[in-house]
Structure formats: structure tokens, C-alpha cells
Amino acid sequence: MDHRNSPRRPVTLYTMLNYPSLGLVRGCIRDVGMGGMFVDIGRIQLPVNATLEVSLMFGPSTLKTPMLIEAIVVRCAEKGVGLMFDELDSEIRYALSHLVFGAAGINESDGCSEFLH
Q1: Which of helix, strand or coil describes residue 46?
Q2: 98 three-state secondary structure
């Protein structure tokens, strides 16, 4: 059963997760919505209900601005985790809305699987 409150958009974007027990974990965002995302983290496993920080880069490739989003692991899958965003400030909410509802063709990083494995 799907409990999402907003649609998800398929994407392929690099990210870094900061989970205090492991440190930085490289990931590839596979889909994103206003309430969360699915991140491919390869064979690394994170516990459900773990709190972590997601680092995202928004904007044109030459002017990307890093944004940090607090998230909670709500689902674990074979190659990744489903994350629910904790609290979003207005700047992050605005940037996410452009990512989720903006122009088609967001596929900024071919080869995410090579990056992870």
C-alpha cells in the first residue's frame, strides 16, 4: 500500500547521506517527491527509523548550491532506502518543487551504478 502524500518523479541524481554511525554514504536518488525519496546505496544497509542528513545539489551545473535535508529511513529494499523528509524550510521546499514538478529530463548523472559499486 502506498502512503505517499505527493507524487514521485523518476530521477538519477548523486547524493551523499550522512548517517552518524557510518559517516558519509554515497547514493543515487532514483525518485523524489515533496515528502521523500528513494536512494540507491548499494549493499549498505541502514535501519528503519534511522535519522540522517541528505546532501543535495540544486541549480545549473556551474552554480549548484548544496542543501541539507533531514530525513528518516522508512523503508529498506535490496539496494536502497526509502526516506521521508523530516522538516523542510521554505527554500528547500521551493527547490524540491522545481525538481519534482519542473521541466522534464532531469537525469544529471549517467552511470550512478558505477559510482555506487
Answers
A1: coil
A2: helix
Nearest Cα neighbor of 47 from 21, 14, 69, 65 is 21
As a whole number of angstroms, the distance between CA 45 and CA 102 comes to 31
pTM of the model: 0.83
Q: Is the C-alpha dihedral spanning 6, 8, 9, 12 positive or negative?
A: positive
Which residue reads 521551493 in cell numbers? 94
Residue 21: is its pLDDT beyond 80?
Answer: yes
Residue 26's pLDDT band (boundaries 50, 70, 90)? very high
Distances (CA, A) of 116 to 4, 6, 38, 73, 97: 27, 28, 15, 19, 27
The strand pair at 9-19 and 80-85 is best described as unpaired
